[in-house]
Amino acid sequence: MCTVSFVKAANGVEITSNRDETTLRSNAMAPATYIYKKKELIFPKDPQGGGTWIGGNKQGRMACLLNGAFDFHHHRPPYRHSRGIVLLDALVAENKDEFISNYDLHNIEPFTLVIYQNDTLTELRWDERKKHIKELNPEETHLWASATLYGPEIVQKRKEWFRKWEKGHEISAPYSIRDFHYHAGEGDPENDVVMKRGSYLQTVSVTSMRLDSEKISLIHDDLVGDNSGSKELLIDISK
């Protein structure tokens, strides 16, 4: 699932995710605040796995998850728990770097996790064998596409669409990147950024998370149900 972008815009940072999922899966809930392991978080909840694919905490940490690491992998359940729980655990960890180094991923399905905090941007890929950790430049824009749905050629094509879109659009306005997430592509419904394959697999939502000096804001557009919504969480980076 997922096409994810990271941009800096209008004195803030934005992560936007197109969630590509089977419509047979339970529909995600609108964004809300939750207490998880005694920490206050903001995210749209996946009722099936109990976790989420995107969310933030009161210290200004944001995280977003994509299924798969580098290549297609075979789904071999049962797994220890949902990948969406990994994201929640990343948000409640006292130190994100220690979390990345020490978190036990044994018997967890492959994923890519992007974490932003305090002007650092970290990518963690888990391929069922080892962790691959990469520090990225937060001053640059970035794009990811799920390895479970898109082969290398399609991933590269999406990055080309992204660079072309950047050249022709102004990213300084809040949420202007959402135009890309709704309209990028070449008219191929199976591989456009808002996609649909067969009867059940499609982009089910577009969710943007924005961090500024005061708060984390979430805008969630449910494309297949009635759970669209928005929510804000005030932050306190001194804690």
Notes on the protein architecture:
The chain has helices at residues 83-92, 96-102, 152-168, 178-183, and strands at 3-9, 12-22, 32-36, 39-43, 54-57, 62-67, 111-117, 120-126, 131-136, 142-145, 196-197, 201-211, 215-222, 229-234. The protein has 239 residues and is α+β, with helices and mostly antiparallel strands. It has a single domain (3-234), classed as Penicillin V Acylase, Chain A, CATH 3.60.60. The strands form 2 sheets. Strands 1, 2, 10, 11, 12, 13 and 14 form a 7-stranded antiparallel sheet that branches. Strands 3-4-5-6-7-8-9 form a 7-stranded antiparallel sheet, with helices on one face. Strand 12 and strand 13 form a beta hairpin. The protein starts with a strand and ends in a 5-residue tail after the last strand. The model has no long low-confidence stretch (mean pLDDT 93).
Name the descriptors:
239 residues, Penicillin V Acylase, Chain A, seven-stranded antiparallel sheet, 14 strands, globular, Transport and Golgi organisation 2, TANGO2
Task: Provide a compact summary of the structure.
The protein has 239 residues and is α+β, with helices and mostly antiparallel strands.
Q: What do the pLDDT scores average to?
A: 93
What is the number of helical segments per DSSP (H or I, 4+ residues)? Answer: 4
Number of distinct beta strands: 14
What's the number of domains? Answer: 1
* Alpha-beta classification: alpha+beta
Low-confidence stretches: none
- Report the biggest beta sheet as strand number plus sense, adding barrel if it closes: 7 strands, antiparallel
Radius of gyration: 17 Å
Order of helices and strands, N to C? EEEEEEHHEEEEHHEEEE
Q: What percentage of the residues does DSSP assign to strands (E)?
A: 35-45%
CATH fold topology: Penicillin V Acylase, Chain A
CATH architectural group: 4-Layer Sandwich
Question: Helical content, roughly?
Answer: 10-25%
Organism: Mangrovivirga cuniculi
Pfam family, one: TANGO2
Protein name: Transport and Golgi organisation 2
